[in-house]
Each structure stands twice: as C-alpha cells, then as structure tokens.
Amino acid sequence: MTSLVPKSTSSQQPARLNELVADFEQAMLTELSNIGLPSDGVLVSINERHVVFNNFESAIDLIEMPDRGRSLYLSKFLAAVGAGLFDAALNYLWDETVAELRRRIASYDLAYFFDVAVTSPERRKNLRTEEDLSRVEDQELIRASREMELVSDVGYQQLDLIRYMRNHASAAHPNQNDVMALQLLGYLQTCIREVITLPESNDVAETKRLLQNVRSGKVDATTAKATAEFFQGLNQVQADNIAAGLFGIYVEPTSAEPARDSVRMLLPKLWPLVGENQKQHFGMRYGRFVANGDHDQANLARQLLNVVSASAYLPTAVRVAELGTAIDDLLLAHRSFNNFHTEPGPARRLDSLAGEKVPKASRAPYVAALVEVFLTNGNGIAWNADPYYRNMVSRFSPKEAELAMRELFNETVQSKLRWDIPKTKYTELLEILDPKITRPVARDLMDAICSFGGTPNALAKDTELRRLLRKAFSTN
User: Fold this and answer.
1) Long-range CB pairs of 107-110, under 8 A, 24+ apart, other chains included
2) What is the rounded CA–CA span in Å between residue 288 and residue 87?
3) To 5 degrees, how large is the angle CA 169–CA 173–CA 178?
4) Residue 112 CB-density burial (10 A; 0-12 exposed, 13-18 middle, 19+ buried)
5) How far apart are CA 112 and CA 110, in angstroms?
C-alpha cells in the first residue's frame, strides 16, 4: 500500500474548504447542544478529516476517470469524511465495494455465481436476475467472489477484515469503536486495488468462455478434449466451482438440450478432480429436489449423477435432504446481522434432525457448518444456540472429529480466528475433539495443533502442520 503520511493542512488544502469544514462543525455542534443532544465524540477531529482530504486524490489514482462517474458511494464517502462521520464513510466505502462486485458478477455469469454462492436449492431457484444479487449476504458475496477468483486470496482476507470492521465500527452497527484517518485510507486503497480496479485473470476469462460455450451448446468432442487439458490445471476450489456451474446448467429447467449435451461431455472429464464434499453436495441436492416435489429437476440431477457413475452419492433417505435444508437455514441465520435472535431455532432443529448418527452424505457439510457456528462470527456468542452446538459437537464420531480438525485449516475459519471470541471458542473446540481422535496419523496432527506455538489463524501457514494434514487425510 502507498505510504500515507499526514500532510500540512493549512498550506496544502484550499483555505475555503478548511473554513467550510470548520464552520459546519461549529454550527452542527452548537445546534446539537441547543436541542439537548450529545455533542462530544460525535464528529472526528478536523485534522483527521484533512489527512483523508490530502490523500484522497492519490488514493483513487488507480480508478480511470470514466469509471469515477459511476462511483456514487465514493462521493458519499468523501462527503461523510467532510462531515466528520468516519463510521458512515466506512459504510459507504463498503457499499461501493459491494456495488462493484455486483457489477462484475453481472457482467461475468450470474447463474454461475448463484450456483457457487448459494447451496440451498430452495433459495437458488428464486435467484436469477441482477436485482437478486441484493438477496445474497455480503459474506456469501465476497466468499463466492474469491472462489470465482473475482478477488484474490489476499484480497479476500483484507475484505473480510473490512467487512468485520464495517460491522463493528460503522454506522451500520453503531458502537464506540473509532476509525482513524490512515486506517480509513488503508481500507479505501484495499477496496480500490483488490476489487474496483482488479484486472480479470486468465483463468476467470477461460471459465467465463467455457460456461458461455456450454450454455450455447458449442462443445463438441474436439472442444471437450481441449477443455479436459484446461481442467488438469485447476485447483480444488476451481474444479468444485466449475462442477457446480455445470450441475446448475444441467438441472435448470430452461436449459436447452444442446447445453445438457455439452455438460454430459465435460463433467466426466472433470469428475475425478471434484472434491468429496462437492460430490456429496450433488447427491444432497438430488434428495432435496425429491423432498421439495421438484420432480423435473430431481430427474435431471439423477441423470447427471448416472453419467458420472455417482450412485454412491445418492441420499439414503429424505432425512439427508432435511438435514441439508436445516444446515442452510442455520448458516443463513448465523451469517445475518441479527443472528443472536435468529440462530437458536435453526440450531434446535438441526440438533433434533442429526440425532446420534449423521448419514454419510450429510457428514461433511454438517461438520463444516458446526465448526463455523461453534467458533461464532466474531461479534459475540449466540447464547441460546450455543448449547445445541456443544451437544452436536460432543456427539461427533471419531471420523467427524477428524473432519472438524481438518476444517480448522479452511480459509474462512482461519480468517475468523484472528478475533478474540473465535480464539476462545477454538480452545473449547479442541478440548472436545481431542479425546475423539484415535487414528495414529490423525493423532499426530492433533498433538501438533495442540502444541502449536503460533496464533490459531496461522495454522494453515505452518509447513509441518500442512505436511501432517496431508498425511492424515491421504491415508484416511
């Protein structure tokens, strides 16, 4: 990030602007006092505002002049800075970042984004247009954007930090946390560099072109062979996401038959690279189509699973579908702003459905969801839901405990382990999981985690821990 240093405000800022800011502050604080409202601590100091003014133009240098004309929220950002409301400015900056992400998604592939971002078939079937992007939670938006490589891995971590601060210290969630000028400028540069002006990568362009060809039915044997070579260079997340996109195209009732022909040619070439969790998710989606009475989509999903000889991933009972719905409902409540009030109901329902033994097809998403909610969202513990989480984690089998241990290396989990409350819950989680880990190679990993001298959010960066992780799960 460009070094930002407070500049002399009297010589480098237009004198008239300084006078206007000072006059506004005096008039506003006087009016607040006159009508009996608090005036202390309402506005940040004029010097802090001048630091932002002095550096703002250089901070937005990366944005081309024609693109600035659509950056309404950056105008509101600067206006809020002038008013001395840095919390509101942070909120406008986040709104601008989200607006730009939505623009990029809309110009890329809406259906693909919804397939990656929203795992619930019940929610997914109602998401089709650009206007529906507003119905996707911000956390889901940046997570899916990172998985689609519309933002970088580093950018995702930084945006998640800004999202956290926006929820903690902005006008969206009023509190007493202060945002300082250089901190606000740093957030501004991050959003500009990692989202607003981030160029499209070759992989993103190739995936976009692939999905367009599939939808238009332009994949033939020669194209499929060339695409198979492209698949070999994919990482796990990329393979899972493209598989989700192909699955979504196939089961979409409005898809043309040539598009489904294209999927039938491509998915068998991709299937060996698709992760176990994603394969189980496809089976779960079939079960939920059946449970919801979506017979056409259920038949299409079964056809596609047959194409890749994936009968083993079909659910053993409708209970799997019900568990999937309960997991999605819980995660949606957990990731929403008023989660303390909305989490207990879905938590109680999932606890009831899970019972003593979770079906194999539900095991991975069930464990992943419980690790996420057990660690909290960083803002506080949902006290009325927490006993259900402890009950379910305590019932983990050794296999499920190993999956939970692996989840600790997940990027999303690692990101939240920067905060104090998740760190405390992390220690509690290890205490519950520790006696359940019995397999020797898994035991080695657990012992190493428990004795790790770094902070929890650095687990995935440790070379020895990564080696033990690969060893534990390559022999599982």
Assistant:
1) 108/148, 108/150, 108/204, 108/208, 109/208, 109/211, 109/212, 109/245
2) 42
3) 20
4) buried
5) 5
Q: What is the per-residue burial (b if ≥16 Cβ within 10 Å, else e) of 38-77?
A: eeeeebbebebbbbbbbbbeebbeeeeeeeeeebebbebb
- Residue 360 CA, chain-centre distance (Å), reads 25
Q: What is the dihedral of CA 306, 308, 310, 311, to 10 degrees?
A: 20
Alpha helix segments (H runs only) across 109-201: 110-117, 121-124, 138-147, 153-169, 181-191
Contacts of 345 (CB under 8 A, 6+ apart): 333
Buried b / exposed e across 159-193, counting CB within 10 Å, b at 16+? bbebbbbbbbbbeeeeeeeebebbebbbbbbbbbb
Helix boundaries (H) for 252-275: 257-270
Interval 126-183: pLDDT, tens: 999 999 999 999 989 999 999 898 888 888 888 888 888 887 765 554 544 578 899 9
Name the pLDDT band for 16 (thresholds 50, 70, 90): low
Token pair belonging to 333: 């409540």
Length of the chain: 476
Q: What pLDDT digit, counting tens, does each position of 248-286 carry? A: 999 999 999 999 999 999 999 999 999 988 998 898 899
82 phi and psi angles, rounded to 5 deg: -60, -35
What sign does the dihedral 47-48-53-54 (CA atoms) show?
positive
8 A C-beta contact, residue 264 and residue 214: no
Domain residue ranges of the chain, discontinuous segments joined by +? 9-196, 202-313, 318-474
What pTM value is reported for the model? 0.70
- CA dihedral (351, 357, 359, 365) positive or negative: positive
Residue with tokens 């189509």: 289
List of residues 6+ apart from 158 with CB closer than 8 A: 190, 194
CA 24 to CA 26: how far, in whole Å?
6
Percentages helix, strand, coil for the chain (3-state, rounded to 5) are 75, 0, 25
263 token code pair: 């999927």
Coil vs helix vs strand at 5: coil
